[in-house]
Each structure stands twice: as structure tokens, then as C-alpha cells.
Amino acid sequence: MRATDGAGPSDAVIRVRGLTVGFGTQVVLEDLDIDVYRGEVLGVVGASGSGKSVLLRSIVGLLPRWAGTVEVYGKDLSQLGRRERIEIERHWGVLFQDGALFSSLTVTQNIQVPMREHLKLPQKLMDELAALRLSMVGLPLDAGAKFPAELSGGMRKRAGLARALALDPEIVFLDEPTSGLDPIGAAEFDDLVGKLQQTLGLTVFMVTHDLDSLYAICNRIAVLGEGHVLVSGDLKTMLAFEHPWVAAYFKGPRARGAVEA
Amino acid sequence: MAELTEAAFDCRVEQSRVHLEPRGRWTVDTLSVLERGIAGIKIPSDARLIDIDLAALKELDTAGAWLLARSEVGWRARGLKTAYSNVTAKHRVLLDEVAGHPLQELPRPQQMGSITRLLDDTGRTVIGAGDDVVRVVSFLGASVAALARAVARPRRLRFTSVIHHMEHTGLRAVGIIGLMSFLIGGIIAQQGAFQLRRFGAELFAVDLVGILVLRELGVLMTAIMFAGRSGSAFTAELGAMKMREEIDAMRIIGLDPIETLIVPRLIALIVALPMVTFMSDMLALVGAGVVAKFYIGMSPTAFIERLRDGIGMNTFLVGLFKAPFMALVIGLIACVEGLKVTGSAESLGRQTTASVVKAIFMVIVLDALFAMFLSAVNW
After folding, report:
1. ipTM
2. In whole angstroms, what is the distance from residue A128 CA to residue A139 CA?
3. Which of A84, A101, A103 is the best substitution to test chain B (most B C-beta atoms within 10 A)?
4. pTM over 0.80, yes/no
């Protein structure tokens, strides 16, 4: 684990208060509070079905909230007009679980979609920027001309990350970035995220199941359960926390393997 | 957008040195302005060194850093040296990161001349059409084989599935096809009577409706409607299953996709289409009867008698006889197109369109073949 450089509670880029989200009669998140600090990598873990992805999706506004507020840079998202909202949205990028690349566009075109939508850049400049993004996420240039269906799972994730980074966002949401990758590919992806986070000064909100990712790149961990954040803090806090699921997760055989690695 | 104007740079020339001072926000949204500005810098031919002073730079992201790095490459190629000063640690990291990714050209997809492309397209279409014929025929073979297995061991026939598809393709189409047929029967009767009235042959409008509807239109309209409703649905269902690897999963588990997915659909279509055609025929005649009553003033009894005298049983049977063949063609095309779907959402749309268009076209071709055959055998 890396130390957080100077970030503290005063420096929350995302501040969620009293968030309640559900489907039909089923409440998934109830009165949930969570902060994401500038420049940190926050790992959100929890059992399957504990609402990790729901949390991510309701922060970025893909799911309607029943109650609560989400503030980004101190602005309440529900109070913003369309323009201000787009302005905020330009500052974040989302990597969906399987990349969610547009299947009818090539990888290069996928990366250029946000640029085309939000900026007026000459095609040559966009091509060069796309090439830079491809190179930054470690994809070969010829992958740019391919369609998503022609890529492997790991390459799709990298391409999805390149698209998420297209506009140089400050906040990046990652939904299970290493799921479906082989351990070596997952470790490489962790390295990539960690390196990009440091060089670009990103704030990363990462939903994950992967203990190795938590150990490798997260500054802080938040555990979801029973509809809210059970505990958040660094690894020591996790290990000291007395809760059956948290204990089983961080002290189980897989966790020991990750520590030794 | 006042912020955009914040991004700029100063450029001074002192003998052999060029001072470049970026100011403000060098980010992706100011990039296009900056790029034009940088490209417009005139560097004297005796310049040796470009001195880049980042003291006034407020914000830098990879796009801005890349613009600097890329310009640097250009200057270096012209024999100029570059030196940075007042670089903060944060900017240093970005500049180093970007410099680590050399300027590369994206490979351009090969452009063909218009004539070459036309020839290329034509060739591909012809080959595709040939492939289609082979696919449909081999599919027909596989389906018949699966059907034969099912007949030999009726337990293998997915009865529930057949009923389900019959409900969706047949029963649920009854309303719309019935209404359509009723109206078409009425329209033909009205037009027939209107045109034939000039020759004093109004009564023959009944023969006209009877032959046209029973022999051709009833089955043709129903088949076209089936191609649009059920053919597209089959293609989309199978295509989505193919995209999500469900069909591969079935193969692995040992379920034959042809037996579990295709045969029930084909049987449902082959059974449902004649039934709906019969209903369509009858409702068209009812429509014609209603028009005859109010437009010609012919009583229903007289209408039915005239129909019985004017039209042989064979006319009615010919229409029904064609229905199962059309159903088979629609089903086969829909399933073949569905299984041609690849990973992208676009291909799903393309194959669904292709399925409907090809099915309607083949239904009409089939009808023409039947017309030639049946008149040759004097039916």
C-alpha cells in the first residue's frame, strides 16, 4: 500500500451523504456516507450483491437516487443545470466492467468519441491524441484500427481505460477493472492504473473483488455491507475491524496469499 | 468561455535563442488554439536553442504536455536544441510520461478507388449470395435431419417450445392480420365493382375477389406479415443468443441448437402460417361481402352463392398449399441470418434487416414459381 500524499478529509472531491438507492421495493443502499479524497485510490469492496456497482452507478448519475446528496467538487449534482453538469462530467471518466466500447466503432473512434462530442479538434490532432492514449495504456498501435469484438478481454479493458482517459479526467471510476483477467494481466493492469494515477494525478474510485489490486494500488479501502459503508480506512484498520465478513475477507487464505506476494 | 483565452504563450527571439513562455491552462480544451499558435511561430534560421520557461504555466495535462513534446520533436529535427526551465515536479512527471511515447502515426485503413470499391462490393455481394444459398440448403438439410430424429423419437421434440412459438407467431398475429385482410377484401371488392360497373359486370367483382384473395393475396399478405413480425424476431433472438455465447454454451452442454432452437421455430411457422392464412382468406371474403352488401346491394346469401358458383375448391386449396412452403422459407432465412450475427450491435441490426428483406423477396419469388407450376399443371 502506498501512503496518501497529503490528502485529508478537508479535500474530498466526491462527498456522498445519506444516499439511498433501491429497485422496486428492495433497498440496496441505505443512508450511505462516503468521501473520496483528491489524489487517492479508493478501493470499494463488499460481498456480491452488496451494492458496489450500484454505488458507482448512482454517483455518476446512471441510477436515480431515492434520497441523499452527491457532491462533486463541492457542488450538489442534483442542483446543477445541464451545462454545469456536463462540465462536471467532463472531469470524470468511467471504465465499465467489460469496457462498454461501442461495438460499431473502431478502438480509435471509440477513444475519439468524447473528444468529438466535447471539443472541436482537427482530425489529425485527434488521431495523434488517440495514438498517445493507446500508447499510454499499453496497446499496440494496430489495435486502434480494430473493432472491440476483435480484441481480447484484457485489451478491451485497456481500450476502455483509454476512452475513459480521453479528455484527461481528474476522477476515474473503475468497475472491477481486473475481473476476467489472468493474474499476470491483472497485475499489469494494476500497475498501469497505479502508474497513470501517479503521473496524471488522478483520483480513482475503484470497485473491485481483487485483493491483489487492493494491496497493490489502493490508498484507502471502503467495505460495503448491509446497505452502508461498514468501515473505511487503510489495511491496518481493516485487519483490526471485527466483523465476520470483513474478517473473513481480509484474513482468509486468499488474503494471506496476497500479503505474501 | 473566458477560460479558453487564458491559455497562451509568449515568444521572444534573442539572437540565436528563442524564448517560449507558456501561460495559463495547457489542457485538452485549449489544445486546438495552442496548436495553431505553436505552428505559427516563426523561428529564425540562425536560431540554435529554444528555451522553454514554464514559470507562468498554471495547468498542464497530457494533451498539453504532448503538444510541447511533439513540437520539440519537430524542432529537434531542424537541428534546434531545447531546454526547459522552472519545471515543477508535477509537470516534469507529465512531460517525461509523454516523451516516453514517441510520436506515432496511426495506421490508416487502406483507401480504395471508387471503381475498385464498386468492383470489390459487387464481388463480395455475389460471393455472399452464393454463400447464402449454400447456407440455407445445408441448414434445410440439418433441420430435416433433426426433424427426422424428432419423428423417430418424439420425446426429443420440444413440444412446449413449439407451442410457445406458435402462440407468438400465429395467435398473436391474428388480430392485425385479420384486420388487414378484412380491409383488403373490402377494397378489392369495391374497386372491382367500381371498374366492372362500366361493363355492367358488377357481379363478377365477387369472382375477382374470390380468386385473387384465395389464390394469391391471402397467403401472400400473411406470409409477408409473418416475415416482418416473426422472421425479424427469430433473427434478433438467435442473434442476441449468438452474441452472448449462449449458442456455444448449448453446444458444449450437448444440446443441439438446431434441434432445440431452430426446429421448434420452423414447425411453429409451418403449422401457424396455413392456419392464419385460412383465417385471413375468410376475413377477406367477409370484408368483400360487407362491401357487396352496401356498395352493390347484394345480399349475403347471393354473395355466397355467387362465390360457390364462380370459384372451385382448387382455388382455395392452391392458396393454402403454398403456405407451409413460404413458412419454411421465412423460418430458414430468419434462422440463417440470426446465426450470422457477430459481436457487434450493428451486425444484429444488419442481419435483422437482411432477414426481413430476403424473406419477403423469397416469398414473392416462391409465389411466382408456384404460379408458373400450377398453371402448367392446370390447377
Report:
1. 0.73
2. 14
3. A103
4. no
